[in-house]
Amino acid sequence: MATGDLNRNHVRECTAPLYLEPLPEYLARRLGAETAETWLISSNPFDVIGAKSAGLKAVWIRRKPDAQFDPWEIEPDLIVPDLERLAERL
User: Fold this and answer.
1) How confident is the model at residue 8 (pLDDT cuts 50, 70, 90)?
2) Are residues 68 and 27 in the same domain?
3) Which of 10, 38, 50, 65 is positioned for an S-S bond with 26, CB 3.0–4.6 A?
4) CATH number of 45's domain
5) Considering its fold, how many domains does the chain have in total?
6) CA distance 73 to 70
7) 26 and 43: one domain?
8) Residues 39/58, Cβ–Cβ less than 8 Å
9) Do 52 and 28 reside in the same domain of the chain?
10) Is the pLDDT of residue 15 over 60?
């Protein structure tokens, strides 16, 4: 998707004043999927928590075996150590 396809109705502002992220509903629609069928894959627990809070499925890439997920009572749908293992699980 080209950034030119996005407009102010499809994004929400994040903490950085000039950074915008697409709304989950917009991304799902662009993919031809439901929001609940759309996955975020990240090694950042904060991203996973945000995705889950927005109704997306989420994979946490736990790069270090001793890494702890943030304690916000929100869990990823899947935890893998790297993208190779993610590919094996799909």
Assistant:
1) low
2) no
3) 10
4) 3.40.50.1000
5) 2
6) 8
7) no
8) yes
9) no
10) no
Q: Cβ contacts of residue 77 below 8 Å, gap of 6+?
A: 39, 52, 57, 58, 59
pLDDT in tens, 49-61: 988 988 899 999 9
Query: Which residue shows structure tokens 């995705």?
Result: 51
32 CB burial (10 A radius; 0-12, 13-18, 19+): exposed
| 44 lies in the same domain as 71 | yes
Distances (CA, A) of 20 to 7, 26, 86: 10, 13, 27
Whole-number Å distance between alpha carbons of 1 and 88? 27
d(CA 34, CA 61): 23
> Does 63 lie in the same domain as 23?
no
Task: Give the dihedral sign, CA 52/40/50/47.
Answer: positive
